[in-house]
Amino acid sequence: DGGITQSPKYLFRKEGQNVTLSCEQNLNHDAMYWYRQDPGQGLRLIYYSQIVNDFQKGDIAEGYSVSREKKESFPLTVTSAQKNPTAFYLCASKFADSGTYSNQPQHFGDGTRLSIL
Amino acid sequence: LAKTTQPISMDSYEGQEVNITCSHNNIATNDYITWYQQFPSQGPRFIIQGYKTKVTNEVASLFIPADRKSSTLSLPRVSLSDTAVYYCLVGDRSSSASKIIFGSGTRLSIRP
Q: Least CB-packed of A34, A45, A66, B97 within 10 Å?
């Protein structure tokens, strides 16, 4: 089955520790995204990547880092600089928009819930 | 960026038709309107997308007036399993980005 796999489902971070959240897709999608969701809130964009070896900051990139070495993978590192990392993290992917009137929908993984020990 | 405004919450009963309206006054000519559904502790799931007039699929209908400044998601004969948060999004077609802005969504509660 094609889809997006996020792992782990639950993750705990100690003070001063960096942690990496995995996101893998086998949909042959071009673009990938990372969002953060706090309780009762909408999604906020952390980073996104439209092609391999290229990525851009979203609205709340501080304290996070990403890489896009392969088309299928877009790992997110939550660094110790992120002082309030407790949240639900969602990865998404989509085909690139093509043509003038095109807006491909995003496909989401089932998320990783990060908590502080 | 085209911003969307939708009700924070709505309540309805099983078997009823539910209509959720979204306002997007600054929608751009090339933008599509997309709706997602999210259950607790899951990622959002694509429901329906449209550009103008009416779109219907096996799950919902999307009504878009001629001026495209609003849209209405219609869920026919809802059930308890339709209890979720529904997001209305408008595509961002800025020259250097391909991102979609999620607002806070509409929390729909269905009662027996």
A: B97
